[in-house]
Amino acid sequence: MNTKNMMVQEMVKPFLLQARYGIEKESQRVTLEGNLVRTDHPASVGSRSFHPYIQTDFSETQLELITPVTESVAEVLASLEAIHDVAQRSMPKDEMMWPFSMPPALPEKEEDIQIAKLENHADVLYRRYLAREYGKRKQMVSGIHFNFEYGLDLIKQLFLAQTEEASMENFKTRIYMKTARNFLRYRWLITYLFGASPLSEARYFDNADRPKEPVRSIRTSRYGYVNKPDVQVSYETLARYSEELAENVAQGRLSEEKEFYAPIRMRGGKKVADLFQTGIRYIELRNIDLNPFERVGISSDEIEFLHLFMLYLLWTEEKLSADEWVAEGNRISDAVSLERPTETTAYLAEGHAIFEEMLQMVDELELTGADLLKNYQRWLDHPEETLAARILALDEAKGQAAVALELGQQFYEQAWARPYQLAGFQEMELSTQNLLFDAIQKGIETEVLDRQDQFVKLQHKDHQELVKNGNMTSKDTYIAPLLMANKTVTKIVLARAGFHVPQGETFASIAEAQKAYPRFAQNAFVIKPKTTNYGLGITIFKGETALADYNAGLAIAFAEDDEVIIEEFLAGTEYRFFVINHQVKAVLLRTPANVIGDGKRSIEELVAEKNASPLRGINHRSPLEKIQLGELEQLMLKEQGLRIDSIPEKDQQVFLRENSNVSTGGDSIDVTDEMDESYKQLAIEAVNVLGASISGIDLIIPDKDKPYETAADYGIIEANFNPMMHMHIYPYIGKSRRLTTDVLRFLYPEMNI
Amino acid sequence: MNTKNMMVQEMVKPFLLQARYGIEKESQRVTLEGNLVRTDHPASVGSRSFHPYIQTDFSETQLELITPVTESVAEVLASLEAIHDVAQRSMPKDEMMWPFSMPPALPEKEEDIQIAKLENHADVLYRRYLAREYGKRKQMVSGIHFNFEYGLDLIKQLFLAQTEEASMENFKTRIYMKTARNFLRYRWLITYLFGASPLSEARYFDNADRPKEPVRSIRTSRYGYVNKPDVQVSYETLARYSEELAENVAQGRLSEEKEFYAPIRMRGGKKVADLFQTGIRYIELRNIDLNPFERVGISSDEIEFLHLFMLYLLWTEEKLSADEWVAEGNRISDAVSLERPTETTAYLAEGHAIFEEMLQMVDELELTGADLLKNYQRWLDHPEETLAARILALDEAKGQAAVALELGQQFYEQAWARPYQLAGFQEMELSTQNLLFDAIQKGIETEVLDRQDQFVKLQHKDHQELVKNGNMTSKDTYIAPLLMANKTVTKIVLARAGFHVPQGETFASIAEAQKAYPRFAQNAFVIKPKTTNYGLGITIFKGETALADYNAGLAIAFAEDDEVIIEEFLAGTEYRFFVINHQVKAVLLRTPANVIGDGKRSIEELVAEKNASPLRGINHRSPLEKIQLGELEQLMLKEQGLRIDSIPEKDQQVFLRENSNVSTGGDSIDVTDEMDESYKQLAIEAVNVLGASISGIDLIIPDKDKPYETAADYGIIEANFNPMMHMHIYPYIGKSRRLTTDVLRFLYPEMNI
Asked: Per-residue pLDDT tens for A657-679?
């Protein structure tokens, strides 16, 4: 098959870069001092019997992180980043991931290496067999497995662009077999560029059979984790490959197929023989060392290069018979992996030839990536730029173990710096980031269907759920949130059911509202837009209100909505009750933006200090918002006879806002445990009356310690659909309430999360 | 009790006009020629065993329309208007309501007057008893019953403003008993002003005992429907009232309490004796004739007057002992009712005294209404302005029966002029008006919780449902409409489930979208905002698109939304499938705004003619929208080489729009019965996959007659939550599909609607 002729056709070109990717990444868990941990796989992570993202490899200490299949480099990296964050933050606070492929110093006694404690006994038995056959030490090495699939449209267009092969299924198989053979032939280039296991740590090698370190990659060399030399398989055709693999198992040279540690695997069915039914769906590249300079072990550039390399493998012609071609590749790969990293490779000329051919391909096929290729080509003449050489240089300066510790700690700190965010998804709402975190942690398959719209798909076995904005789910009816969105109707419904709600009226015009002045002026009342977000447009009057102030309040409210509510202002403290599935899972007190004086610093300085907390950010990217010093805050100070350069006395609390919304710099204080049970019951019953499953209901309560007796003991202000969750998860003061986990429990009762 | 002293207090004043109202209105059903109908109570109306709004009184031909209890005059009138519309439009097209209290000419044989065919046998037996005791003819008279309740806060404030009566319950009873006695004393004024039964028609009186017509009100006179003279009851106290009423029943003078035809009734429990438990909740005024000049039999001014009159009855002192006072009132009432309408009343002086006292009350209590009172007071000196006199004048000109026919037909035409609207609620969305119509018709209690927000409460027995915008209900989950609102995610979900959806991409910036030009330019595609209403911002390109046109399309779409979708344009015809509860209830073809030429008139003239249809309006107040001749339409004409003054040939169809939305003047054509079943099944399955219960799903189908076989036979464009219903109910061409009834069936399966 002349694949080049197919690839250059116009009908094929638009689809050339179409592909799907998946990454598996192994890492040893170590202490912050760099020693292999003695703890079990993290308990907070869902069961390894089904976990799609966080597994263990050979040993109990060896994490295996698995991304879902994605259709872009950005997505696969985002997923890996996220799973990495979840894994790191699910581990005890004194553990981190070892950034190198080669493990840290191993225990003196091999029995101290703990085989993964898997639930499936067959999995344990297999690991015990491996330990006997290869020794436990060799199993402790980590790497990246890169799963690659040519896009279906690409395969289809290539198929249409030829006439030689009539069967689409056979064509696809031939495409992948060619790719595999060429990969085996040219894979040395990957090792040259990205080999990153130049040195072993103590007790990795337990006998004299070891390379002369440093090398480019112990892991991909014959000293790495490879089968015994008598295990040989042909890649000429899928049939031969399958037969010979089966023969190896039949003869007892392999215990089962998966013991065949080839640098590439054809994937599709559960077993190789299934491939005749399923076809080859994708291929798995297994010869990639962890890039220790990347938190997740692989960079975007590496993936882009691998993608172009795959296209090149399809593009370039094979020059020998299948078996000879692969055997030649194996020889070269082993040789290159054992070269000294800082030395020029013996295959420099072939390396340049590959790059020249790749550049020509990129040019002919009008692909992007020429710059990236040229950059990597430069490494051929500058071996000191390869990963192995860079590690070696650092090793010479301070020792490989110290380097690993430094890099590991740096990545550890990155993962913990903003624990309320999830790497790869930081531009999404915090609640959704937290929900994704929890779902990944518990082993629920997640997929973001629309980032901008906060639309997430969850799946566990056959049970699928869609979630928008963190808590808009199938568990609520359509009408309940619409009811909550309408404050007037909410009040009618609650009042009729016997709940105490502030009396008020809705006005559709400013003129009409102005006429109502005499009815409200004498008592405390609040003017607010009928629909409000973040407390915008709300003014509170505490009694004896002047007409001008009243009219000003109306103007502010009508600027936010066509309809405005004026209602009785209830004295007392407002609490947010987060109700889900007939339970109060959190109660929060929100206090308006404020600072507490120290007798020395000005209000401006105190605000700056408070704003420096990593919990405070802007535009809802953090659990709390920075306190502003805008017009409203300065007005509020002025009313208290203060300015931003005033210096409050020690312990004097100065408020900068009337409203207590977290979104305008307010503090959030968890009072779930302190709130009298009777009010929680009230909140639950009110949410029931509204027919809602998830609601943030706001109650005014004069005394939260005194059990509810009469209507005077509380008033319901409003019920919020899609209530903020992150302010409960990361309160300014008090206990964190992980509401996103409650959402998952509600959605997946069968999982017993 | 000095009620005047209580009423003038500041604490009472803000609540003086607080009240609740309910109206019952009887009407005889007649043919359009004015003859009593021979048909049964309309079958389309829900069962009389529970119907809260539409009942029958004595005879099968006598409708009784009952409003819910409301808190304002506007609301009670709106309800009555609506129920009136429903009743009229539920009757056969050749029936209408007789506008007078006095019935039309009655059958010669009394047996031809059909007693109401009620399900409850006791109700039938009671009517048979009445027929025996009073004769059927007298039962054929109609009137208004006006239920009035002083506001609870008003009663409470009055109670707090006195010290004489310590029990709130007793106080309330005394308030209502005083009102009742004064009402009985002064009710003649109501008869003077609003008496409207001056003349009887043929065979109403079947013996010589009849008044000398014309009078002010046959109905309220001793010749009306009154008890025999031996039935007497004291109003001194509730206890005496109750005892004596019971005694009348015990002695057989009345068959049961409800046979006591007093001009006022104390209401609260089911029986009078219950009032000791329940207290008097409200009073029922029964002496109000139908105002034949008002479609609903009573005017807003009459109700306002009655309200002030009730306050006056509380305000003014009684001047004799209870029994003497009532007896005096009865005498005067009978006398006034039998006066000649055009004559000055014998009680002119007392009439003026009452008005003067009322005006003084209004002044002292700072109430509105003085103008209204002065206007009615004028009628004392101008008896020709009273209702009875006005009827008489018309009678003299053309005969009362002809007047009744004329008025009845006028009201009939009003009810049928815009059958898609519901009187009293015309400013609401058409779908909600239709839903309210159906609910009232079927006997589901309705309440509009928020007119502007289209928020409606429905209730049947204990089963309550909230509905917004006609079909947003508890039957859908929260997430399903959110999913449908996101076209991108909808397509992902549908495509994964194996449905054919047009391939496309979403862009968040105009620059990014511009870059995609080469990928779309060669084939047919559509550019549209991610979220769109009424088809705004959509441009269709049918292939070989120029870059400038492409960019213009992007600008139009990005003006409507931050995100824009570009997708494959599927050739074929677009159909809207309305799916509810796993059934396709309507399929609609929408054609773009167009006119069909006659070879004579210009496009402008043809448009004007088409727009003259009562089905076409503006701003969605009618089922179809008027065709505009704006920029877009003129551009479209220009592309066809036409102008608005061009004269199309006979039968030439000229399109004025690309898009087929009804909202831009398109035509709606019902094709439910013509659509092949296989596509209906597809629509149902797709809606199931989206997890929705109610959806308007748009399919492109090249051939609706050819059963679905492959993906090429259809494509799903989008699914709409809250799909328009009125375009199916009132299509331009084809059969009406009453989807609002389907919504009610879905919500209330137990009712077997």
From this structure: 988 888 899 999 999 999 999 99
Nearest CA in chain B to A476: B478
What average pLDDT does range A436-448 have in this prediction?
A: 97
Spatial neighbors of B631 by CB under 8 A, at least 6 apart, are none
A·B CB contacts under 8 A: 99
Do A351 and A298 belong to one domain? yes
Q: Please give, rounded to a whole number of angstroms, the shortest distance from the CA of A721 to a CA of chain B.
A: 10
Q: Is B751 on the interface with A (CB under 8 A)?
A: no
From chain A, pick out residues whose CB is under 8 angstroms from the CB of B468. Answer: 479, 482
**CB < 8 Å to B477, chain A:** 473-478
Each residue's pLDDT tens digit, B448-478: 999 999 999 999 999 999 999 999 999 999 9
Segment B486-492 mean pLDDT: 92
DSSP string for residues in A5-27: HHHTSTTTGGGTT-EEEEEEEEE
In this predicted structure, the answer to whether residue A533 has a pLDDT above a threshold of 70 is: no
Give the pLDDT confidence score for residue B532 in this predicted structure. 67
- Domain end (from A568, A597, A621): A568
Owning domain of residue A541: 503-568
Q: What CATH number is given to the structural domain containing A533?
A: 3.30.1490.20
B573 and A CB contact within 8 Å: no
> Which residues of A are less than 8 Å from B473 in CB distance?
477-479
Interchain pair B452, A563: CB under 8 A: yes
In a domain, B86, yes or no: yes
Percent of chain A with pLDDT over 70: 99
Interface subset of A 636-695, CB within 8 angstroms of B? 691
| Partner B contacted by A497 (CB < 8 A) | no
**Of A415, A441, A462, which closes a domain?**
A415
| Same domain for A455 and A309 | no
* Phi, psi dihedrals of residue B517, rounded to the nearest 5°: -45, -50
Contact indicator for A126, A255 with CB cutoff of 8 Å: yes
Q: Does residue A369 sit in the same domain as residue A437?
A: no
Residue from A16, A152, A463, A478 to probe the interface with B (highest B Cβ count within 10 Å): A478
Residues B443 and B412 in one domain: no
Asked if the structure places residue A465 within a domain, the reply is yes
Residues B446 and B560 in one domain: no
HSE of A739, CA atoms in CB hemisphere, 13 A = 32
Rounded Cα distance between B540 and B636, Å, is 13
CB–CB contact B455 A519 (8 Å)? no
pLDDT tens per residue across span B641-669:
999 999 999 999 999 998 888 889 999 99
- Tokens 């990659």 belong to residue: A217
pLDDT at A273 over 90: no
Residue carrying structure tokens 């209404």:
B369
- Contact (CB<8Å) B468/A482: yes
Sheet holding A564-568, edge to edge: A504-507, A564-568, A525-529, A539-541
User: In chain B, what residues touch A472 (CB-CB under 8 Å)?
Assistant: 478-479, 482
Dihedral of the alpha carbons of A237, A239, A240, A245, in degrees to the nearest 10? 120
In this structure, are residues B429 and B437 in contact, taking their beta carbons and an 8 Å threshold? no
Q: In B, which residues are within 8 Å of A473 by CB distance?
A: 477-479
pLDDT tens for each residue of B507-538: 999 988 887 786 787 788 999 998 866 567 88
Tally of domains within chain B: 3
Decide if A473 and B453 are in contact by the 8 Å CB cutoff: no
**Is A11 an 8 Å CB contact of chain B?**
no
Q: Which of A327-341, A449-463, A629-643, B507-521 has the lowest mean pLDDT?
A: B507-521
CB-CB under 8 Å, A483 with B478: no
Provide CB contacts within 8 A for A658, sequence distance 6+. Answer: A539, A540, A592, A636
Cβ <8 Å between A455 and B486: yes
Kindly state whether A495 is in contact with chain B, defined as any CB-CB distance less than 8 angstroms: no
